[in-house]
Design a protein that fits this description.
Jelly Rolls, two-stranded antiparallel sheet, 7 helices, globular, binds 4-(methylsulfanyl)-2-oxobutanoic acid, binds nickel (II) ion
Length: 181
C-alpha cells in the first residue's frame, strides 16, 4: 500500500497517454499520506499475507459472504474498458466496502476532508476497508490486471450511488460525515 495526494495535472508517461487512459497513470504528487490520516477518513488498511488474517477480520465484522473478481481484458473481454470507466465514476455505498488484493494492482481514490483525492495504491496481500458513505472510485493501473476478493456482510449489495445532489443528502453520507468530525 502506498497513499498520496492525487495530482490532477500529471501527465507522467506521455507515450502511454492516449492508449492507456489517463486514470490508470500514477498521478503521484509526491506528497505521501500516512495510515493515520486514512484512519481519520475512516479508511482502514491491513497487510494480510495470510488468508487467516482476512478470515479474522471478516469474522470480527460479521461478514458472511465473499467472492473473487478478476478485472483484466483477458478475464472480461471487450467489456473491460467500459467496466474500468464505470468503476472510476465517483460514488458511495450504503455499506462498508472491503477489498483484499490477491494479485496485480490497482488504485482506490478516496475524498479527503477538503474534498481532494487521496490515491491509495494496493497490491497483493493488501486489504482495505472503506466506510459506508465515503466518496470514492477505483481503477486498474497501466498493467490492466487486478484480482481481488470482495467481502460482503450479507448479500452482495454494494450498489454504487454516483455522486450528486441525492447522495449529498443520503443518510449514510450524513452519518459518515458525522463520524469523521
Ligand atoms: C469497486 O468497488 O469499484 C470494485 O469492486 C472494483 C473491482 S475490485 C478491485
Ligand atoms: Ni465502490
Amino acid at each position: 500500500m502506498k497513499a498520496y495526494w492525487f495530482d490532477n495535472r500529471e501527465i507522467d508517461h506521455p507515450t502511454h497517454f492516449s492508449a492507456q487512459g489517463d486514470q490508470r497513470l500514477t498521478h503521484d504528487s509526491g506528497r505521501e499520506v500516512d495510515a493515520s490520516y486514512l484512519a481519520k477518513l475512516g479508511v482502514l488498511y491491513h497487510h494480510c499475507p495470510e488468508l487467516s488474517a482476512v478470515d479474522a477480520i471478516a469474522k470480527d465484522r460479521h461478514y458472511k459472504n465473499r467472492d473473487e473478481i478478476t478485472v483484466s481484458p483477458q478475464a472480461m473481454g471487450n467489456v473491460y474498458e467500459d467496466k474500468v470507466k464505470m468503476f472510476f465514476h465517483e460514488h458511495l455505498h450504503e455499506d462498508e466496502e472491503i477489498r483484499y488484493i490477491r494479485d496485480g494492482a490497482g488504485y482506490f481514490d478516496v475524498r479527503s476532508e477538503g474534498d481532494d483525492w487521496v490515491r491509495i495504491r494496493l497490491e497483493k496481500d493488501d486489504l482495505i476497508i472503506l466506510p459506508a458513505g465515503i466518496y470514492h472510485r477505483f481503477t486498474t493501473d497501466e498493467n490492466n490486471y487486478i484480482k481481488a476478493m470482495r467481502l460482503f456482510q450479507d448479500e452482495p449489495k454494494w450498489t454504487p450511488l454516483n455522486r450528486g445532489s441525492e447522495t449529498d443528502t443520503n443518510q449514510h453520507r450524513k452519518s459518515y460525515l458525522q463520524s469523521r468530525t
